[in-house]
Amino acid sequence: MAETALGMATTLVGSALSVASSAAREEMGLLLGVQDDIWFISDELKMMQAFLRAADGARENAGVLKAYLELIRDLAYDIEDCFEEFMVFIKHKKFVKQILNLGARHRIAFQIRTLKQRVQEMSQRNLRYNAIKLTPSTSSNVIGDTELARNFTALNVEEAQLVGLDEPKKKLIELIAKSKAPMEYETYNAGPRVVSLVGMGGLGKTALAKKAYDSKELSNMFSTRAWITVSQSFDQKQLFKEMINQLFGAESWDKLLKDHQGQVLEVHLADYLSRRLKEIRYLIVLDDVWTIDAWNHIKITFQDSGKDDSCVIVTTRNGKLAEYCSPPSDIHHPEFLGKEEATTLFLKKANKSLDDLEKDKNTKGIVEKILNKCGGLPLAILTIGGLLANKDTKEWKSLYRQLPWDLATNPSLDALRQVVSLSYNHLPSHLKPCFLHLSIFPEDFEIEKKHLVNRWVAEGFVADDTTTRTLEEVAEHYFYELMSRSMIQPSELDNLGNVKACRVHDIVHDIAVSISRQENYAAILGGHMSTIATRVNIRHLSYFAKAKLNVGMDLSHVRSFTLFNEPMDPIASLCSSKFKMLRVLDLKNSRFVARQRDIKNIGLLPHLKYVHIRPASFVYALPRSIGNLQGLQTLDIRKSNISTMPSETTKLHNLRRLRCSRKMDPWYHIGGCLNVFLELILSSPGAPPPWLRPWSSDHDNCSDEIANLHTGMSSCWSSSSGIKVPKGVGSLKQLQILEKVDIKRTSRKAIKELGELAQLRKLVVRGKGASKKKSKAFCEAVEKLSSLRSFCVGTNEWGTADGLDLLVSFATPLPSLERLKMKGRLEEIPAWVGKSVNLAKIDLKYCKLKDLKVLATEVPNLMQLRLYEDAYSAEKLEFDRHEFPNLRFLHLQLGFTASVREVTFVERTTPNMGRIRIERCELASGITGVKHLPKLKEVYILRSTLAKQDILREDVDKHKNRPALQLLDCYPTRPEESEVKVEVTESISEQGESSQS
């Protein structure tokens, strides 16, 4: 897989070049006497990068090339590590003193000059062994790979057509036969309808298109037809020739050659096709189109030509291309095979029957595991089924276990490997490390979009595109690029249909792990996907538990440490100096409970950019050494025991996300103190009691534990979930998220400084008990935050709620605000809320509002409204005529003690309402008027008292959209008055968001 290695080497050289260029501009390099060497390395990297790009696709001397690329890869990593260490060193406050130390100067200069020699040697090595050849034949190799994969796939098309395609074929034919809607094509070029089939490789797009193409229905519908295979690289002239031969016959091509005396150019062919297609009804299938650029080169033949009922079918893996070609109504997403269809296809290919499975329960279990791995992907089912056809069923279990490795080495699985690898190799260089990064997550793991985006930024995968977009926005664009290329699949949507999380198909994940292993990208410990590093230098370490950490493993080059579940062996320290190049410490998805001693040495890791400690940790205070982490971008330690942010955090000038809050659970805090007390006993002089020895650890002294116990006991009695923010917070100019500020305990000076955070996008505060002076200072500060998009303010703790008086003091609206959460007594919506024109989401709790007129009439872009306990105090919640013009989602969770007894929708209200979700409400007068909601899709009511259920059902049944209705644990009266349980009327998928961070 030299092509894969070449692509990764190109990406890594680009990353090293960026760091080297930054280091070269530092004046301290001149003082150290290495500035010329740094510039030399930077210039060589530029040439190396250009050389690698020019050689993309080379296959000659594949073994030599692969070895050479491995050397380039390791060199690029080492250059980046060295220069990042150099940059950290010169920015350290003690640098001026250290620079006078001849030993330190010599060490840095020696490392850089050694790298210079290695760069020179790399160029000489290529000359000696001719590892990369720049020849005209290079580009043809891409075509060869594509055709190889397509030929493998084509062998299975006929078999794939036999299972699960009848109904999809019927729907596709109906879509093709449908008349073109002129309004939908207003933004597209004139010409035929374009129907796009989009999905990941191996899904059966070609098989489905072929079955429809060969059908009698379409044969009789069109005057002429053509099936054209496009692929990644294609010859435009040859493609046009093939279209002419299929559409009009070989004699037309011969005549065209004669007319132009054998000198036919692409423009002649395009003009000829355009003229001939104008007056006929045609069907053209363009199979396997990869890029928008390719589409633009082809569509010139039929734009402005053909009758409106002509049709072009495009099959592609690229969702953006499909959106570019076709309006939404003409984009078709083939589905994965269902369990029954997948089983039928697998057994057919494996020469087995259902009776065979029933006779052997062990084989049945293995088949189920294999099909789960295949995930309904037809090509995977066919390929693996074919591999097992000639093997005894006793061998199937062994093959299943070895499948991740066989995907990389077994020739029988070439079809599957090539189809997925083609998608990877076709990724632009900036997306390849983002995709490989997915290999560090467990199989079938749901990955939050925001989590992934922030990690990509911290890893340095995201380049500043010189626009007004933040790095996070650029990274989010990368996320959607991978999704549009079918490399990841959306797995969770929020209430407005935005993607919140994704999954990687199991087969794609196995290929990613395989590539990661070959590229020495990540070491995975634990689980069936464990990998063993082939070299000493490990760059990314992912720990799935049920494995032991090799004590001899070199961790000095590890850039990210990700922990899932809970480790088998106790971790001595998360912040060991062995992780000297660590950028990412991610415990978000682990069951490991971090303690104070686990982070006390965090200052020893100066390269850290991302720290995420799972909620409910026993951490009581951030160590002062955290000020050493000058590159830190994300510090997420929510629901801990921390009550005060140390002043050293104000030195973290690259900090973008600061998320810290206290867990409001007294028993949790008491348990934490007991944990610290236990540590204190274990760290005391002398041997601990026998029953404590399994937890014992080696401490030099117990002073730290005494301090932790004191801090922990103090934290126990704090009634605030917020954090005291120090003076100097205004120096954090890059801060985008700040959570959770305790206004009462934070000084007025620090509160005023919040107004200096010009980049702040999200602010979460606790306002309970704040003085009038602090409230006024807070409002004045927030009014200056022109970039603020999400604002959450609450006064409730321990079931009580103070007034939100501080919100009334706002003099001006927040122009960029998109989401607002208010928790506390309010009684009426402040006037500035109605003037915040971009406000789209509002959550209210304990507000005791008497009406919603401001929200209903003055917030035109409001799309989501969620009302929680005591948010509304009237008995009837009525949505009146012309109110809430853009509201799409309504969520009510008012509580059984709330005043609301009836929800009513009058005619011509909320015209865009799509989903209604109601929980724990006492609706003694029911819900009426849903028949007036023209875009309603579903109604979900859970654990509520609901009268007039027959009227609700009747309204839903008669609704033109036939929205889904689900009633769970709903009673016409209180449960003690009636034990009748309402059955579920329809099953719907719940896509609601439990909480948006």
From TrEMBL:
Residues 978-997 are annotated as: Disordered. One of its GO terms (biological process) is innate immune response-activating signaling pathway. InterPro entries: Apaf_helical, Disease_R_plants, LRR_dom_sf, LRR_R13L4/SHOC2-like, NB-ARC, P-loop_NTPase, RX-like_CC, Rx_N. Residues 985-997 have a biased composition (Low complexity). The keyword Transmembrane helix does not apply. Gene3D superfamilies: 1.20.5.4130, Helical domain of apoptotic protease-activating factors, P-loop containing nucleotide triphosphate hydrolases, Ribonuclease Inhibitor, Winged helix-like DNA-binding domain superfamily/Winged helix DNA-binding domain. CDD domains: RX-CC_like. Residues 13-97 form the Disease resistance N-terminal domain. Keywords: Coiled coil, Leucine-rich repeat, Nucleotide-binding, Plant defense, Repeat. GO terms for molecular function: nucleotide binding. Residues 190-352 form the NB-ARC domain. Residues 440-512 form the Disease resistance protein winged helix domain. Residues 557-664, 720-965 form the Disease resistance R13L4/SHOC-2-like LRR domain. PANTHER family: DISEASE RESISTANCE PROTEIN RP, OS06G0287000 PROTEIN. Belongs to the disease resistance NB-LRR family. This is Uncharacterized protein.
